[in-house]
Amino acid sequence: MINSFSLAQMPAIEFGWGCTDSRLADAILAQSQNQVMLISGGYADAHFVEPRLARVFECRKVHRVVVRGEPSPAVVDKLVAEAPQGIELVIGFGGGSVLDAAKAVAGLLPERFSVVDYLEGVGCGRKIQHTPVPFMAVPTTAGTGSETTKNAVISKLGEYKKSFRDDRLLAKQAWLDPAFLPHCPASVLYPTAMDAFTQLLESYVTLKANPITDALAWQGMCLFKGAFDLIASNDPTCQQQGYGQLMLAASLSGMTLANAGLGAVHGLAGPIGAYFEAPHGVVCARLLAPITRANIEALQIASSEQATTALNKYVQVAELLTGHRGLAGLVAYLEQMSADYVPQGLAEFGLRADNLAPVLACCRAGSMLGNPLVLSDQALKQAMMAAL
């Protein structure tokens, strides 16, 4: 039998090489009359914004700010406090952290309380009472899928990394332009893409998967397969195809995580990001193979129907990626991908065998609840040790 499930609303999506060149400005003008707020990343602001939004700057009052790094409560609250009244549209133009900041600001502008009040497991449980300002997402990386999710991730280094979540935070439109991706340095492109793949795989085997999220996750993994090789070719057409596959796969990963949840990789990545200045994509890429190994080993000795289903899904992914149904081959494939594209170990960011206890102490909520089975602290620590 198919278990009961619900599916969240999706944003309107515009996809295509160069789709933001002229039509993005038209969309912004059509959805505003007077004043908009533009939140962009430093690189996007310097290279992408002006040529695409020149007419917006001419025809609208634009409150323009730049966000660098993962948004903290202090940053988000400052953006909200300094925003003028009457903002009709918030545009996030940049990577996943920029989109998270813009999404949070759009949700907070009508009420202007601190974002901490709304954070899961941290705040006072405040819920949005007024409709957020419409939010438009323009991702310039292919990673977090924030453009298709209903949560904004907020970090306070040394304390927490939590979500501000509400169905009404979903973007009104998401503009997916793969033409941004060739400008990403390899140190950004590959870890963020590995984060997207991790989200697709975790949402495929999660306890809360359903037939629709399975279809989206499978399509996303099919798009991801071979994309790096296409990008590395000398044929511009192949390169464009590879970048397009990554951009679409990342957005599909946002849809699947929003509706099916994630698993142990992201269960660990949250607290690791809270306690260490480690890039999220790198953390996920380095944990993916050891957590997949731990899950497979635990599932092989479990006896539930749920465990059998998850194990069969890993077999399907193994065949997709390697051409064989061997689970050891899947782990080896993920290990090689990490070694080739994200060679930095987590030790480079301060993680050591003797300072992982705080991560283990607060990793059991959130994404960890979707893992196909409960992994022991020992298994989780072993996975983190393998990622060092």
UniProtKB/TrEMBL annotation:
It is an enzyme of class 1 (oxidoreductase). Keywords: Oxidoreductase. Gene3D superfamilies: 3.40.50.1970, Dehydroquinate synthase-like - alpha domain. InterPro entries: ADH_Fe/GldA (IPR001670), ADH_Fe_C (IPR056798), Alcohol_dehydrogenase_Fe (IPR039697). Residues 192-357 form the Fe-containing alcohol dehydrogenase-like C-terminal domain. GO terms for molecular function: alcohol dehydrogenase (NAD+) activity; metal ion binding. SUPFAM superfamilies: Dehydroquinate synthase-like (SSF56796). Residues 13-178 form the Alcohol dehydrogenase iron-type/glycerol dehydrogenase GldA domain. Its EC number is 1.1.1.1. Belongs to the iron-containing alcohol dehydrogenase family. PANTHER family: ALCOHOL DEHYDROGENASE (PTHR11496), ALCOHOL DEHYDROGENASE 4 (PTHR11496:SF102). This is Alcohol dehydrogenase. It comes from Thiomicrospira cyclica (strain DSM 14477 / JCM 11371 / ALM1) (Thioalkalimicrobium cyclicum). The lineage of its organism: Bacteria, Pseudomonadati, Pseudomonadota, Gammaproteobacteria, Thiotrichales.
